[in-house]
Specification:
The complex is a heterodimer of chains A (567) and B (167). With 567 residues, chain A is α+β, with helices and mostly antiparallel strands. Chain A has four domains: 196 residues, Beta-Lactamase; 86 residues; 62 residues, Histidine-containing Protein, Chain: A; 121 residues, 2-Layer Sandwich (60s Ribosomal Protein L30, Chain: A), CATH 3.30.1330. In chain A, the strands form four sheets. A five-stranded antiparallel β-sheet of chain A has the order 2-1-5-4-3. In chain A, strands 13-12-16-14-15 form a five-stranded mixed β-sheet. In chain A, strands 6-7-8 form a three-stranded mixed β-sheet, covered by helices on one side. In chain A, 24% of the residues are buried. Chain B is α/β, with parallel strands linked by helices and 167 residues long. Chain B has a single domain, classed as Rossmann fold, CATH 3.40.50.300. Chain B is built from six helices and six strands. Chain B has a six-stranded mixed β-sheet with strand order 2-3-1-4-5-6, sandwiched between helices. In chain B, helix 5 links the parallel strand 5 and strand 6. The longest helix of chain B is centred in the middle third of the chain and has 17 residues. The chains are: A alpha+beta (567), B alpha/beta (167).
């Protein structure tokens, strides 16, 4: 009799007697079934090989199915442990396929959201050769395994453990024990038929995965949001450990080595990060970027070419401008432009030439210095300004040769004649000016000169008797030339008669055209009278006046001057 | 099979016998005692010297007071190498409960070593358990009179249990 039996005799004598009586009754019942176990296998074998095989199978189908269901309900752990090596890979494969589909959907969704960040990730994926979905997960679903415990399922004791290097030490045995107790508690409390187990928990940014095996569990403490690949890798490692445990003749050292390898955090993280299958890289975002860059470059080149064209046109205009020498055109600060050059004081202003630059939004600046131009047009302007010749003297410049012809008063012409050769840009002077002997003669010569010039000063009409927009300037210039003509005629001793002549073009009826000629002449006469020309001096050319039968065929009007001796 | 370096010890006894107090100063506490009333167990660890001079790490599962081993308690007992049975010397009924629990635990962990701690030695004048009964118990398993208040006998009880654990 051992210690426990003696203990039972002391404390449980009455219970023992009751149990012994019950055992005796059970023995009697068992004796009736004695031998059934020996006879049953033989009977089953006989049925399997006999003619009643099919009938027996049909008869056994229902009770076997019921028994299997009962076994699953009553011994779920046993069934799960037996099927674990088979269903583990199957489930993992199915889950893996589902996750790949999910990742593909996420990838597609992200591809459709065309953001700068998405583009940057796509460039990174293209550059590194890593699938785009993995790059997205790396940036958005970052995780790190803090602790990994291999825990003996029965006892809750730690068999192996691995922790991230930077973390503080912890009592792994106590944690593993408590975790096992809580898992048992949860399973006992809320697990259906005791078959469901605690698989995961989340606290703040930490996730706990508890992966169950027949003999050992893996507890994985993760910081962040882990991907499905990590779970699959953990399951693979747990299966590898169980395969080593169950292998025939496996030594403790070998099993321990497999366990240590399986819990290598560096390898685990690497495997999980590269678990997603490589897929064909989508090129369209990159092409889109390239197209955008090319479009931007093309726009820049076109804008640059347009600007260059505009600058070239400006350079041409400035180069052709008389009295201006372009030394530089600075457009480094577009659209602002700085024009450097030399400008003769007698040259026309160059500001109007810069209007196109202003229209382009720029602010042109002039940086010019004075100089004396030898351009014929500028020399002519300069000669007119310096010599101030009377209207009876005509100036011409060609190849540096200044020509003067006409009639001038002898007293007033001496000084300009001496000054002409000294004008800058004049290398030779050709004089053909006839010096008038008396004021009357000079005045007559001037009037004759004016009579020759007046028909060249014409005003134009658009339609009817409506003068063109520049008619005011034309009439002003004509009135200026005629100012003092009455006094000049008196000096010359002649009578002056002004005739306003209206003209028309070749179209239209004769009657209409006659009216137009009359109307345009009358309009010119009225305009000149309004500007101070004596009304007695001017008349309108009659349509039957023989002196004006051959009028120019154009829509214009001019003044004809007739000189006659005074009675 | 890979063998864990630590050993699992389960502490069992009736309500109020002083299990938690017995180990309060002896173990390295990590978790709050609230787990005793919620989960029904609290796991602590401690280092104990073996007779050969080597250290052994004990993982002590302090199970909430109970008078029977239900399914949850059975799951807590699985894999235990040693059992620390605790009874209150001032209440004879707790001894019967402790022995009852011991026999039920044996059904789950038949090979586990066991030690009986008769607690509240500091109240020896009020004990209901007779010395004769104690002497009889010593023939069946190691028995230690302990005091959670003074700490008497606690270390010896743990050392005795550690000595009986497999290496």
């Amino acid at each position: 009799m051992n210690d426990l039996d003696r203990l039972r005799q002391i404390l449980l004598e009455e219970d023992r007697r009751a149990l012994a009586a019950a055992a005796q009754r059970l023995d009697v019942a068992e004796s009736r079934q004695h031998g059934l176990a020996d006879r049953l296998p033989q009977a089953l074998e006989a049925v399997q090989s006999g003619a009643q095989r099919e009938r027996f199978a049909r008869a056994m189908a229902a009770p076997v199915a019921t028994a299997l269901g009962s076994a699953v309900r009553g011994n779920r752990h046993l069934i799960i442990d037996a099927l674990f090596p088979i269903i583990g890979p199957t489930i993992r494969k199915a889950v893996g396929e589902a996750m790949r589909g999910l990742v593909a959907d996420i990838n597609q969704a992200l591809e459709s959201s065309f953001t700068l960040r998405g583009l940057a990730w796509r460039v990174e994926a293209w550059r590194s050769g890593v699938p785009y979905a993995e790059v997205v997960l790396k940036h958005t679903l970052a995780w790190q395994v803090d602790h990994l415990f291999l825990i003996e399922r029965a006892s809750g004791l730690v068999l192996h453990r691995a922790s991230a290097p930077e973390l503080p030490a912890l009592d792994a045995d106590a944690i593993a024990g408590m975790l096992t107790a809580i898992a048992d508690f949860v399973s006992d409390s809320v697990g259906r038929d005791g078959g469901d187990t605690l698989e995961s928990a989340r606290v703040g940014e930490h996730v706990l995965w508890l992966i169950q095996g027949p003999r050992a569990n893996l507890a994985c403490f993760i910081r962040g949001v882990p991907g499905s690949a990590l779970y699959a890798r953990l399951q693979e490692r747990l299966e590898r450990i169980h395969a080593a445990i169950d292998a025939e003749g496996a030594s403790d050292e070998l099993v321990a080595s497999v366990g240590a390898d399986a819990l290598d955090l560096t390898a685990l993280t690497r495997d999980a990060a590269t678990a997603e299958p490589r897929r064909r890289t989508a090129w369209w975002p990159l092409l889109l970027v390239i197209l955008a860059v090319v479009a931007a470059l093309a726009w820049h080149v076109l804008r640059d070419r347009s600007w260059e064209t505009r600058m070239e046109a400006l350079r041409t205009r400035l180069g052709a401008h008389p009295g201006f020498v372009l030394t530089a055109l600075d457009d480094t600060r577009r659209p602002d432009v700085v024009v450097h050059g030399l400008l003769d004081p007698d040259a026309a202003p160059i500001e109007p030439l810069l209007a196109a630059t202003r229209a382009a939004g720029g602010a042109p600046q002039l940086a010019v210095q004075g100089y004396l131009s030898t351009d014929d047009a500028i020399v002519l302007r300069r000669a007119r300004r310096l010599l101030a010749p009377p209207d009876s003297v005509r100036l011409t410049v060609g190849g540096g040769v200044l020509g003067l012809d006409g009639v001038a008063a002898a007293t007033g012409w001496r000084r300009p004649r001496l000054r002409a050769p000294m004008i800058a840009g004049v290398r030779e002077v050709r004089l053909a000016v006839e010096a008038a002997a008396s004021p009357a003669e000079f005045a007559r010569a001037e009037l004759e000169q004016l009579a020759r010039q007046l028909p060249e000063i014409k005003g134009t009409f658009e339609r009817g008797v409506a003068a063109a927009p520049d008619s005011e300037a034309f009439v002003d210039a004509l009135a200026e030339r005629l100012r003092g003509i009455e006094q000049q005629a008196a000096t010359a001793g002649v009578e002056v008669t002004l005739v306003a002549v209206g003209c028309n073009d070749a179209t239209g009826a004769d009657r209409t055209n006659a009216g137009l000629r009359e109307g345009r002449g009358a309009w010119l006469r009225a305009a000149l009278i309004e500007r101070g020309v004596p009304a007695a001096l001017i008349r309108v050319a009659g349509d039957t006046d023989p002196a004006f039968q051959d009028r120019p065929l154009e829509r214009s009007a001019y003044v004809h001057m007739e000189l006659s001796s005074r009675p | 099979m890979i063998r864990a370096t630590a050993r699992k010890i389960c502490m069992l006894g009736d309500f109020g016998v002083g299990k938690t107090s017995l180990v309060a100063r002896y173990v390295h506490g990590t978790f709050s005692e609230k787990y005793l009333t919620t989960v029904g167990v609290k796991v602590d660890t401690c280092q104990v010297a073996r007779p050969d001079g080597t250290d052994c790490k004990l993982v002590v599962w302090d199970m909430a007071g109970r008078n029977g081993v239900d399914a949850l308690a059975a799951s807590y007992l699985r894999g235990a190498s040693g059992l620390l049975m605790v009874a209150d010397g001032t209440r004879a009924a707790t001894l019967r409960t402790a022995l009852d629990l011991l026999m039920q635990a044996r059904a789950v962990v038949p090979d586990a070593a066991a030690v009986l701690m008769l607690n509240k030695l500091d109240l020896i004048e009020h004990w209901e358990i007779e010395p004769l009964t104690v002497a009889e118990l010593r023939n069946s398993l190691p028995v230690f009179e302990t005091s959670a208040l003074s700490g008497d006998g606690v270390v010896r009880a743990f050392a005795a249990l550690t000595a009986k654990l497999p290496a």
